[in-house]
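Issue 218. Parser rejects a valid record. Input:
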Amino acid sequence: LQQNRMENVLAFTAPRQGCQYRANYNALEYTHGNVHIFVGGDMYDPYTSGNDPLFYLHHSFVDYIWEMYRQQKQTRYQRENDYSPDNQACSSALHFGSTLMRPFIPLRNIDGLSNAYTDNLYEYAPRPTCRNGPKCGSKYLFCDRSHGQPHCVSQARIGGRCSGFVRGEQVCHDGICIGGRCVATRSSSVSLQILPVTPPLISVPAKQTSVVSINADCYNENECCQYWAQRGECDRNKGYMHEWCKVSCRVCQPNFNPNIECSNHHENCERWARSGECLRNTKWMRENCRQSCRHCNRTRAQICSGGRHDVKATHRPQPEKTSLLHCNSPGCYNENVCCPLWGLQGQCTRNFTWVACNCKVSCGLCIPVDYDYGTCNDYHRSCPDWAARGECSINAWMLENCRRSCRSCLDQWQLRQRCRINSDLSFSHTPNFVPTMIDDFYYDIL
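Output the parser choked on:
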């Protein structure tokens, strides 16, 4: 709680050679691990620690410490946007902020910092203290005044040890301390009648021939799903498309005709439209409640292709040419130095078509194997030559991928200043970061 920098809290615990961050053994992840080691048994092994009920109490307390840090040290905006830098020399690329959160696809790691959890689902009560009285305000705790600074601890169960307390503490839960052991009082002794339990009979249904059934919960989540599917994205970006575009990728069979341009796919569309969902839940409503949202003036193909498809066209849509970069450059690279921050702000989901081309690494669409992303090195062997030709000052790709040659290794604060990141990020305002040609092999600019 004394830390003021995010990378000292969400610290790198397995840095490799080349990582500029040293291992901090006082970091929350390390100290949390010490408890696993102390308890031992199933708690010792990460693969079995969830078998111990203590695991959930322990992790709730760790999360409470994390929440105290968020409340005391961060603004509301910082709580769901500040994330440790993406650096393969310091951690696996699977831990990058904008990488898909496996197995909870299509969520991304940064989504775990959302304010929505504590806004809508849960909150932490203040930590109990001895100021709340001799039982710390709980029937399961007591204030230990016999061992150093007074602090709240759990009461001992019947049969548990209670020796060593000399200040009159009520150590035993529903009992008293006699001879160093907790003994039940008469009022707390309850006789229980144990009834035999007869397991229920389980009927096994006869084997039936499997049939493909219509799924009433089968929808696309974006009006561009069909357009993306026609361009082969169901195969190229299976992880994303099979979660967000289930109808177009034929993951399930809907109970409506997805080819009708102006229709409602759900019986509640009219009611949702009247309550304002067309504005609050734009992406889903524009795909599934087009009629109720009065969104039928243009076809999906027109909207998703930038208006280059005629309404009456019957041929399969072709990929449109844009004034930005094509996705033809070989290798696994971000095309812009701002990609990590765009990813943290949710652009990997909200502007998938654009970032799938321009921010492949930050959005988890590929993992570099011939360089360590996030380090202050050059990611391509030709970087020194390109830098000598002056590309660092005119080409966005260079600042991201030729960090040593361009001397463009920025920390998080510098990067935010450079990219002018704030809560109103717009792709239409990215001065000084317009891609230009390095050579024909890596770029195809119109």
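Fixed in the parser; the record now loads. The chain is about 25% helix and 5% strand.
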